[in-house]
Structures are given as structure tokens and as C-alpha cells.
Amino acid sequence: MFIKKITIQNFRGIDNLTPLEISRINTFVGKNDSGKSAILQAIGCFFDEKKFNKKDIFKAKPDDEKTVIEISFLPPTEIDNLALDSQGQITIKKEFELIDGKIKVNSFYKCFDFRDERYQDLWNKKEADLNQIITNLGEVPERSGRGKKNVIRIEQIKNSVPSDVVRENRYNPLGNYIKNLDKIYGSVTYPEYSLFTAEQDLNIEATNFQSQFKPIISAYFYKTETQTAEIEAGLKEDLAIEFEEIRKFMKKNVSGLKKFNPTTEFDWTKSLKKFDLNLEFEGHEFDY
User: What are the beta bridge partners of residue 90?
Assistant: First the structure.
């Protein structure tokens, strides 16, 4: 998905940035400390909520307001209009607030939803809930193909709701909205976002430096899952052999013990503890 619009409220030096239109290639021009970097930092906090801290809160923020970062995306394919806002975009809003010294984040999606609460937030509903809504409308849930049940039921509800029921832009809790859309349509995922600032701490071992490259590491292990699966299978086999020897010693005292079946769980993205950099300069030998 590509970013289309950005709205920011009470973030760093930004009190209120009304929807900023974004295209495929963008250039931010302005005086120093005018908020150019703050926009990029806000986008970074949207995609990685852990980066947000209390220093990111606008100092003059009214007590009754929150820090808000809202991004609208262009859908990658044709999507049910009940999942989109009135502009036909996928819009996600994240609200950040400081409660008892800790940052709390609430996420919402914006859609052109029904005003009647009985028919709201359909893209977060389970199949049984959708069936009940259809039944309450006096209809029988239509049969549908595997994997398409919910989208067929949502369409049936839209066609069955009385014509006088008004629709309007509304924010619903995010829940499994993105996951459900991706399951039906595919490619409905956040884009990768990487921000490397000129003021970046160049301590190679620092977490904030290393974390910039996590997407590359994750992508590599995804591409090599066949090889890593062989390693996992080999280790599980070795564990099974060892536990079989243990079982032989135990069988005298534990009657009926037939077999140990070890299970394993791997997270290869955590297998790289850290990396270092060696720099080569013109006219000098490489520093190994």
C-alpha cells in the first residue's frame, strides 16, 4: 500500500498538521526546525509504536487531547467500499497518550460506515456474528466459497439494510481489520518504512542503529526458509535420538512410557545478535 495522506496532531513541534497529500516521490522544503523531520519521525512512530516516547508529545498540548498520527493509504486492489473511508482510502488512526508514566496506544480504522450501530464495524465481525445480523434482517445467509464467507455475508448485509439507514465516516477499533482485509484481498499490509537521519547515533552496537536493518534480516530468513527448515528438522531428529536414550533408562521405573516426542520453536530473526562494520577508505587497505 502507498501512503496518500498524513494528519498529525500534538507531535513534537507540530500542534496540528491538516491532511498532507503525499505522492510517490516527495520533497520537504523549509527552514530549520520548521517540522520537516518531525513529519518523518511521526511516520516512524506510526509504523513502530515502540519508538514513541513522552518527549514526542507536543509540550503545549491541551490536557484533554491526545497525540494523533493518522495515515491514509491507497488500496492495492479493489476493496469493498464498507472497508474504506468516503474517499475510497484505507485510513488508520493511532492515538498516543501518557498514563501513569507509560505510553498507551489506541488504534482505529476509518470507514464509510452505517450510522446504525447494529450494522457497524462489519470487517471486524466473525462469521457467526454476520450470520446473526443477516438473520435479524429477515434473510438467510447465502452459501459461499471457502475463504470468501465473510465478504459474501458483508455484501448481503449491505444489500439487505433498509435504504433509509445513513452511512457516514466513522472510526472503529482497529482489531483484526488489516489482517481480515489481507486474508481476503492479499497485499493489504503496511509498507516497509526506514528512517536514517543525519543525526543518527553512529555507535554501531547501539540498538537504535542495529534496529534500522531488521527488515533486511527478516526478509533474508524468509527467503531462506527451506534451508532453515532443514536445520530445524535435523536438530529435532538429534533431540529425538537423545530422548530415546533417556527413555530406555526410565522405562524400568515408568511403566507404559513409549516415546518422547520433542517439539521445537525457532525465531531465526533473533539469531543475529548484532553486526559490525569495517570501513575501507581510498588509498588504504581494508580494515578486517
Answer: 73
Phi then psi for residue 70, to 5 deg, are: -125, 130
- 103 forms beta bridges with 98
Bridge pairing between strands 67-74 and 167-173: unpaired
The Cα–Cα gap between 253 and 255 comes to 6
Q: SS in 3 state form for the chain?
A: CEEEEEEEEEECCEEEEEEEECCCCCCCCCCCCCCHHHHHHHHHHHHCHHHCCHHHECCCCCCCCCEEEEEEEECCCCCCHHHCCCCCCEEEEEEEEEECCEEEEEEEEEEEEECCHHHCCHHHCCHHHHHHHHHHCCCCCCCCCCCCHHHHHHHHHHHHCCCCCCEEEEEEECCCHHHHHHHHHCCCCCCCCCCCCCCCCCCCCCHHHHHHHHHHHHHHHHHCHHHHHHHHHHHHHHHHHHHHHHHHHHCCCCCCCCCCCCCCCCCHHHCCCCCCCCCCCCCCCCCC
Amino acid identity for residue 62 in this structure: P
Tens of pLDDT, residue by residue over 79-99, are: 999 999 999 999 999 999 999
Give residue 192's pLDDT band: very low, low, confident or very high (50, 70, 90): confident
> Distance (Å, rounded) from C-alpha 56 to C-alpha 44?
12
Question: What is the reported pTM?
Answer: 0.70
